[in-house]
Amino acid sequence: MIKLEVDLGERSYPIFIGSGLLGQAGLVRPHVHGKRALIVTNEVVAPLYLAQLKGALGDVQCDHLVLPDGEHTKTLATLGTIYDKLLADRHERSTTLIALGGGVVGDITGFAAATYQRGVNFIQVPTTLLSQVDSSVGGKTGVNHPLGKNMIGAFYQPQCVVADTDVLASLPDRELKAGIAEVIKYGLIDNLPFFAWLESNIDGLLVGDKTLLAEAVKVSCEEKARIVAADEKEGGVRALLNLGHTFGHAIETAMGYGTWLHGEAVGAGMVMATDLSARLGWLDMDAAARAKALLQRAGLPVAPPSGMSADDFMRLMAFDKKVQGGKIRFILLRGLGKAVIESGVDATLLQQTLEAGDNLCQR
Ligand code: NAD
Ligand code: GLY
Q: Is 143 helix (H, G, I), strand (E, B) or coil?
């Protein structure tokens, strides 16, 4: 087992990564401070892993709530069902919420924990690659709004994160690829050696090689923990973690939540950000093509949806949380592994990227 630390002073917490952690008695238990807990999970994950997790919680009086599956359920209405359950079962302030599932369950449960009785403890047990490498770490919690992704939420850190890499074996291929998009993101942001490692190992990752996946989760969590520790509430450097997300969130909203997976939209969004960086002259076209090639080998979309116009993007990107004074701020590349935040992007070049379709990152 690997143990990393998210260093946030009195809100610091460990990330445990390894095989067989879910059923390991004594691992999660010390992080449940009261006598009661509510495990929030969903209809896909519950039959696979709920009993195992409950079994590892020993003497904790453990209720559970099984949510419907899917990104379209990440709403205020679903959040209401968590409050209903907590109140109906008389959970007090000393309770702990445990999120067992992917990023949807993790984000919504974290927000319920942030707001129930003004804040109760919570624990992340991420079960998708995407949630193990990204969403379970760092304390961003929340739900979607019809006008924009993750528009309602809170920064709220968990007590610990337990990433059992064995659970990735039951993940559908499409979900594995979506998680790999966020892994590639760390390489592109600031870790060129990791990007090169991914180029060498992408085929093994795609067939679910356990050792390679564990290494990818470890490096990704190290990256994320370091950036979150430096800038918990996204005053600066944390915004780099949004590489591809300004375009990607617009795609998710335009297509209807869940039509494109989050990782798929981020994959196409990273190709768009790379293309714009190349048009600005910050990245040579060979490097841009190299980034696109890795995302393509990972089986991710490398062009926006054909039905989305430049106007659609501009309308939806105006809701991005990085917008400041009405100006969209993009995360762009000054080289592979050198992401920067940029607000003054030339409108003509942006329009060219939005209209490039299948020809992104080509001479
Ligand atoms: P998800 O939670 O919808 O899970 C994907 C699918 O896999 C679901 O159908 C789920 O039921 C299923 N599943 C989960 N674990 C499984 C397992 N072990 N075996 C088989 N099936 C399993 O999606 P996701 O990709 O995990 O997360 C995407 C969400 O995370 C989005 O809402 C996105 O906005 C959010 N996100 C949040 C952050 C953050 O910092 N909070 C970061 C990135 C993404
Ligand atoms: N996934 C972006 C962040 O956590 O900041």
A: strand
